[in-house]
UniProtKB/TrEMBL annotation:
It comes from Homoserinimonas aerilata. GO terms for molecular function: ATP binding; rhamnulokinase activity. Keywords: ATP-binding, Carbohydrate metabolism, Kinase, Nucleotide-binding, Rhamnose metabolism, Transferase, Xylose metabolism. Pfam families: FGGY_C, FGGY_N. Gene3D superfamilies: 3.30.420.40. Transmembrane segments: none annotated. InterPro entries: ATPase_NBD (IPR043129), FGGY_C (IPR018485), FGGY_Carb_Kinase (IPR050406), FGGY_N (IPR018484), Rhamnulokinase (IPR013449). Residues 7-237 form the Carbohydrate kinase FGGY N-terminal domain. It comes from the Bacteria. The lineage of its organism: Bacteria, Bacillati, Actinomycetota, Actinomycetes, Micrococcales. Belongs to the FGGY kinase family. This is Rhamnulokinase.
Amino acid sequence: MSGAVAAIDLGATSGRVMLGFVGHDELSIRPVARFANTPVRIADGLHWNILELYRNVVAGLGAAVREEPGLRSIGVDSWAVDYALMRGGRMLGTPYHYRDERSAAGVEAVHALVGPQELYAANGLQHLPFNTVFQLATDELDLADTMLLIPDLLNFWLTGNTAAERTNASTTGLLGAETREWDDELIARLGMPRAILPGLVDAGTTIGGLLPSVAAEVGRNLSVTTVGSHDTASAVVAIPSSRDDTAYISCGTWGLVGVELEHPVISEAGRAANFTNEGGVDGRVRYLHNVMGLWLLSESVRSWERGREVIDLPGLLAQAAAVTTPVAVFDADDPRFLAPGDMPARIAGYCLEYDLPVPASRAEFVRSIIESLADAFARAVVAAAELSGRQVSIVHIVGGGSQNELLCQLTADRLGRPVLAGPVEATAIGNVLVQARAQGLVTGSLESLRTLVARAFSPRPYSPRPRASA
Ligand code: LFR
């Protein structure tokens, strides 16, 4: 038996609707619609243009149905942590972007009630100033009756049903690391209203059919299935390997570097190294660290394009690969790089502060960024192995970054271990596979799904080069 499902995958800079065709021995995907995701800054801060995203999702589903009338199901994933507050089914204000600065005040408010150590012991999350718990601490929660994370919000608009999908709920900071249930005690200590948190569901649950008005727009009714609705959870489903000695780097706007575990690792060393225990599909644990990712590059390009110039990125990457002068390797994780704004100026500022050579051209900036990312990736892989007690001999890079040859090669060089790159669309593939399994198109554990991925999308190998030529 084989059939088609559609993945709605919303990233921080763009969204897509992909058709996936899955059978016992079959897996392929095809893009149906792509659209920009452009945040909007208004007087009170930086927001997502969530209505525009929803409009594009519905239009994309219409196109998917026209291309594949037998579509069995749809599933939504997006970036994590961000949310809408609701009352009586209405959205109260436009969701904030996690890069909005307001969360700093939330960090202080939360830590005044529950210190960082205790918080980590409860939720197992690395400290990111934008974790939902910190954002919520700045919000008017008394006005709301429900809090919906972004994919849960879209599922609600599509079906009228509310639920909190567990992998994404694990990024809120309000889920117990061990129990994977809402942590009532923590929530009470933070003085947050427990009632706004919807019931939890696992990936692979049918949420419902489309509301009649939505079905009319799309062209027919469709069943909505939860997937690993945190995009990184879906990407990890599609790592094309089931070997125990594998680490992964899911690289897009962020570089998520880690290993998959059966149980969380809550240790002081892991907390100090800022390693997170996020929830994976099938109850797995994504033990990983957030590296700043291709954001450093895209935000630099955005600065250069402010002068109305259009940057030829492939050309610039080729120039960067040809740079022979030594460039600065800076700490890609430095919090100064988090907010939107002039990235080259911040990198130059870092170099001056730490007495490193300031890049003298755009090609040198790009080389410096890629070297620094590869360095941060390599350090995070080593830390993931040490902290989890796992032996790592192979590293998979998936997502947009897997297309960046320089990044893959430099990561292999710095690690002294082989890197396997691809698939580029890991998130959409993971989304498709979890739906397909829920529909009975495939069966089995994540390992059998990954075998299917490895067969359909064979990754590109990069061998570490000897030090002298690296
Ligand atoms: C990647 C990602 C990361 C999360 C960050 C913010 O797209 O989902 O996993 O830490 O975005 O939500």
